Amino acid sequence: MEDAAFTLHDNNNTTSDFTEFLSDGFWLETTTTTTTATDQAGSNYFSPHPLLLDTTTNQMDPPTTQLPPPRRLWIGPNTLTNPNPTIPVNTRLVQAIEYLKNYTTHKDVLIQIWVPVNRGGKHVLITNNQPYFLNPNSHSLLEYRNVSQTYQFAAEKDSKELVGLPGRVFLKKQPEWTPDVRFFKREEYPRVRYAHQHNVSGSIAIPVFESGSGTCLGVVEIVTTIQKTPELEDVCKALEFALQL
């Protein structure tokens, strides 16, 4: 596929909602866990955590993930103490994620944001009309983006809504990483049929936290068509670096 820069799509009609969530600053946080698919055999959900993939694993072995020491990535409020006080926090988050394009040689990456909204008296996560990044040459990920916009996931406990990957990350307040979402069951990853259809494999989802309260404000989801390569580790490192700009 021909190299191309990511394209930012920012839907102005919902920017104010996103700004409200992030106006006082927020954390992106990782935790320390090593997980294999067999570790979660008795669980309803396979919850592999980021950020480093064991690329030496035999193809017949269960996927393995490993984390470095815990870290927090602080995105400060839009005040005079910021280097760019005129740039809203939500805009800086979007710019930071776009910065990933300079650190990944593989361009088939979709980055989208899931935020909680109130629908019919219940809170659900949606990505519809939210900012996202996409290589314009990646038709499969464009189709997957369109599919994702039709979904909503649980944003509160005891909900009857589908949980899915964004919902798990939001409710557990822990990042989740998997090298291939196509191994999920439908109840674990409701979009699995479309992942097969559009060749989606690796996925990273990271919770966004409010400063001080520990409240989860939303989820950043990174979807790729790549699986066991160092580039997935590069995505995580680039996201951390970019958010510290």
Automatic annotation (TrEMBL):
Name of the protein in its database record: RWP-RK domain-containing protein
Domain NLP1-9 GAF: start-end pairs: 105-224
UniProt-recorded Gene Ontology molecular function terms: DNA-binding transcription factor activity
